[in-house]
Amino acid sequence: MNIWVVLLSVLFVLVEGVVSKKAGGGGGVNIWPMPVSVSYGHQSVFMSKDFKLKTEGSNYKDASCILKDGFSRFLDVVSLAHVIEGDFSKFNASTILQGLNVVISSQDDELQYGVDESYKLLVPSPQNPALAHLEAKTVYGALHGLQTFSQLCQFNFSSRVIEVSKTPWTITDQPRFSFRGLLIDTSRHYQPLPTLKKVIDSMAYAKLNVFHWHIVDTQSFPLEIPSYPKLWDGAYSIQERYTVADAAEIICSETRINVLAELDVPGHALSWGRGYPSLWPSKDCQQPLDVSNEFSFKVIDGILSDFSKIFKFKFVHLGGDEVDTSCWKLTPHVSKWLEKRGMNETQAYEYFVLRAQKIALSHGYEIVNWEETFNNFGDKLNPKTVVHNWLGGGVAQKVVAAGLRCIVSNQDKWYLDHLDALWPDFYMNEPLTNITDPKQQKLVIGGEVCMWGETVDTSDIEQTIWPRAAAAAERLWTPYDNLAKDPVKVIGRLTNFRCLLNRRGVAAAPLIGLGRSAPVEPGSCYAQ
Amino acid sequence: MNIWVVLLSVLFVLVEGVVSKKAGGGGGVNIWPMPVSVSYGHQSVFMSKDFKLKTEGSNYKDASCILKDGFSRFLDVVSLAHVIEGDFSKFNASTILQGLNVVISSQDDELQYGVDESYKLLVPSPQNPALAHLEAKTVYGALHGLQTFSQLCQFNFSSRVIEVSKTPWTITDQPRFSFRGLLIDTSRHYQPLPTLKKVIDSMAYAKLNVFHWHIVDTQSFPLEIPSYPKLWDGAYSIQERYTVADAAEIICSETRINVLAELDVPGHALSWGRGYPSLWPSKDCQQPLDVSNEFSFKVIDGILSDFSKIFKFKFVHLGGDEVDTSCWKLTPHVSKWLEKRGMNETQAYEYFVLRAQKIALSHGYEIVNWEETFNNFGDKLNPKTVVHNWLGGGVAQKVVAAGLRCIVSNQDKWYLDHLDALWPDFYMNEPLTNITDPKQQKLVIGGEVCMWGETVDTSDIEQTIWPRAAAAAERLWTPYDNLAKDPVKVIGRLTNFRCLLNRRGVAAAPLIGLGRSAPVEPGSCYAQ
Question: Are A508 and B190 a contacting pair at CB < 8 A?
Fold first, then answer.
């Protein structure tokens, strides 16, 4: 793996000149992730100081201000890095872009899995060159179009305004996979609200669309559960907690993104017992949750009932990984219960997971489970299960052959806490490896990079996520044929994206080095 | 040094219970830096949803909205971490704080070195218990009072509103030193505007008051200089530049803070010659600046003239450190020039520094110079010089004995890029060591922690600065008698401050470990 560290350092020396020149907006298409199709010219237009949103010909009413807020964020990010002070009276009027016309055909703006995310962007509009033109089926496609547009905008140091060079641009785009996730773990370390909101904002820059919230685990239970308020006793401290209103704030954060809430059962649940000790099989066996106790399932039902009021995503994640059942057998009352039912521990694990699945289904959710559930009793899983791969490669192949859906997160390539997994590893990890049947390919709904929280708090979360998550984001968004077959080919463009993140105040780390490495020496952002 | 790493880890285990309990707002005064005097009671008040700024009895007009903006930032930071959703109809009216009355006696709001920074804060006001009361000589004292007030505010998870517990509070406060700085180096790495603005915001949280901008150095020249526009050619890339308007934006950032601009001459100036090669003695000798060339001084004059239009701080920093004059002698025309004037290189270095000082004085500045200038020709320095210590301890003592003013930044304790200088080192570094004469003590105007940029960009600047800079900030603000004599005594309070920074979205690193270390394992913020 570490050969990449050496190799990339050498490559940067070789390509430094090229990359640095490009930094100013020179040759090449600097859009990340790369769209389906892009064409451009050799003109320039400049954004008016009074750049306006128009919606002529659009069917969409924007009652919840999703488009309006998205446009306002667009204006913010393109003008963050420098003071815009150009004198527009000196410009040739024909080079000034007065605004953006957004045409959305669908009136529906429910954010849900599988929503149409396609868009088409023309800068300027051939019909009206004073405007840029963005069209999309849904407002969510339009939001992606705004992200792409923001990457075409660059401060021009001569005119002191925002320039879009290489016009006319014609970009059509849509994602390859419908599920493009980032997992954040708020149990190993509590992540304050501003931290989570900033990460969610930055996800949109890379067109990731699912925030997988690994809310609770062994170490702490930070989220308020009105049905079982003492679960909150499992928080690290009084301050390190989320109210229901805080959770709603994350879900309804301005950057609209799907939130996949996780309840990792029956393992990874020790913290539940701090408030309700009867969930522990015994003082010496504090997880997995007590399979023999009806209260365990009552609490799961209560939590999922509360979840269903705020987490409106089609899926809920029920975990099911790393279940070490050995202490069940060592606990007399659990052991007796197993005996009575003629179950061994593996069967009890299966019983637990399937019963939790039924509870989730009863609350209207489809289910995501970590791959161990499939590996152990795949044929028993509810057909609405999406299997979440993590242990290694080759799992998706088996899952889709069994007719189930799959999300890819193999830890050797897509776990962000693996600091020795470098961005080329993230970039080259192909979810459809060895899956050739188009029907089976469709069952791989996407993938997810995972930011486990053992060594990650507000102080280092952003640089551990970026730029590596961006490398995976292109793999998940861009058509296979447009992806680089050799990651060296995208160094310049990915470097540009990381510098763009930095200009937007996101602490994306250098490309050289292990995950979250500090820059090793002085130098331009475009050469590190 | 590393004994601290071990010791602190052990201490955290020992005090963890205590610290975690305190985290909720329990015992102790959790204000950082510690004020001059604090008294408190055992009541609680709750901030009204419609908490208002009042200025009854104040002489200050706030024409530039300094107070109004500060109050608005105060409201933002106290409500960032959780959604405020309390039902005020359920509260006892006498426990609701309706607003803050700010009484400022001076109408003048010029931000300058030595401005009165004292304040007095009463929560609630004895005269009108529905209000808190803040009085100050100047608006800058009032801004500090707002920072202190913000640290008394904490989200209450029962009532879901902001609580100020332990009222009534009576706090009187003023800084021990008038110069409390943080150096940021934008030459080794370009730091984008949002990065700089966020760091400046966070400085105010710790009551630091001087942003020392080490703008240019050997590696790059990012700032626009209208008088000599080609100096900008020394930037790393087109995008990695600041316009004059960008600089003005930093200076006038909402968090009003003094900006000490540095022009480090004659060494550390290689990048100047990219645009004006004649500033280089030769192709093989690219720094120090050519002492024999009048153009060198013309350019310095031009830069300082441009500086004086935007950098209104009383002082400008002229560098003067690490001047390796050896290649002057090896350059024939410089060598000839030296010979003609009967100067050796050390005399030429002195000649350069003193001439630069005169230019700065002619533009109305007093001067800061790094300590080598004092060490080499201290008796020749203009009496308006402030000597900036960095090489080690014991320098301030000599400087003030010579009647000059001094700023302390000894690298072994106050250089943030020294990752093995831990927060207890920062905390215990006493600027007045061995200076007993009160007259001489007054000549130590303060100190500065230095964030040299060799391995620091947007990805790691915040966690390299915090929490260590906070430890120095208390040393510089708090009266000597209130400072802990043993840093172990402040672990709980400093931990609380670092968690407060995290809650405000500032990437402050754990207290355990070397500078900018990641958390080593899962755990509460209050135990790391």
Answer: no
The amino acid occupying position B439 is K
Residue type, A164: V
- pLDDT, one tens digit per residue, over B331-375 is 999 999 999 999 999 999 999 999 999 999 999 999 999 999 999
Interface list for A 222-251 with B (CB within 8 A) = 236-243, 245-246, 248-249
| A26 DSSP assignment | -
CA A115 to chain centre: 16
If pLDDT is split at 50, 70 and 90, which confidence band does A206 have?
very high
Q: What is the pLDDT of residue A15?
A: 54
Could you give the 3-state DSSP secondary structure of residue A129? Answer: coil
Hey, where are the domains in chain A? 1-30+484-528, 37-173, 179-478
Model ipTM?
A: 0.94
A350 is catalytic: no
Cα–Cα distances in angstroms (integers) from residue A163 to residues A44, A123, A282, A501, B399, in the given order? 7, 11, 65, 18, 52
Please check whether residue A47 is in contact with residue A74, taking contact to mean a CB–CB distance below 8 angstroms.
no
Instruction: Indicate the SS3 state at residue A298.
Output: helix
| CATH number, span A37-173 | 3.30.379.10
DSSP-assigned beta bridge partners for residue B387? B369, B406
Where do runs of H (alpha helix) occur along B366-410? 371-377, 395-401
A189:B519 CB<8 A:
yes
pLDDT tens, A294-311? 999 999 999 999 999 999
For residue A173, list its beta bridge partners: A119
B18 touches chain A (CB under 8 A): no
Fold of A179-478: TIM Barrel (3.20.20)
| Segment 251-310 of chain B within 8 Å of chain A by CB | none
What pLDDT score was predicted for residue B20? 43
Q: CA A224 to CA A309: how far, in whole Å? A: 13
Query: Among candidates B382, B361, B363, which has minimal Cα distance to B373?
Result: B382
A322 at B interface, C-beta within 8 A: no
Closest to A427 measured CA to CA, from A456, A469, A460: A469
Beta bridge mates, A119: A136, A173
Minimal CA separation from A405 to chain B, in Å: 32
Q: What is the DSSP letter of B518?
A: P
* Of residues B367, B358, B360, B259, the one with CA closest to residue B311: B259
Kindly report, residue by residue over B128-172, the tens digit of the pLDDT.
999 999 999 999 999 999 999 999 999 999 999 999 999 999 999
- Identity of the amino acid at A400: V
Which residues of chain A are within 8 Å of residue B160 when distances are taken between CB atoms?
A: 243, 245
Q: What residues in B contact A193, CB-CB < 8 Å?
A: 80-82
Is residue A246 within 8 Å of B83, Cβ to Cβ?
Answer: yes
* Cβ neighbours around B387 below 10 Å, total: 28
Write down the pTM of the prediction: 0.95
d(Cα B270, Cα B280) in Å, to the nearest integer? 7
Cα(B62)–Cα(B139) distance, integer angstroms: 8
Q: Give contacts of B 470-509 with A, CB under 8 A.
A: 499, 502-509
What does the alpha-carbon distance between residue B454 and residue B458 come to, in Å, rounded to a whole number?
Answer: 12
Distances (CA, A) of A85 to A131, A155, B229, B243, B442: 21, 11, 18, 10, 44
Question: Which tokens is A49 given?
Answer: 């100081």
**φ and ψ of A509, to 5 deg:** -80, 165
Closest Cα partner for A172 from A129, A137, A205? A137
Strand partners, B154: B163
Nearest CA among B205, B177, B176 for reference residue B74: B205
Query: What gap in Å lies between CA A139 and CA A119, rounded to an integer?
Result: 9
Q: Give the distance from CA A229 to its chain's centroid.
A: 29
> Which single residue is written with the structure tokens 């207290």?
B511
For A457-488, the pLDDT digits (tens) are 999 999 999 999 999 999 999 999 999 999 99
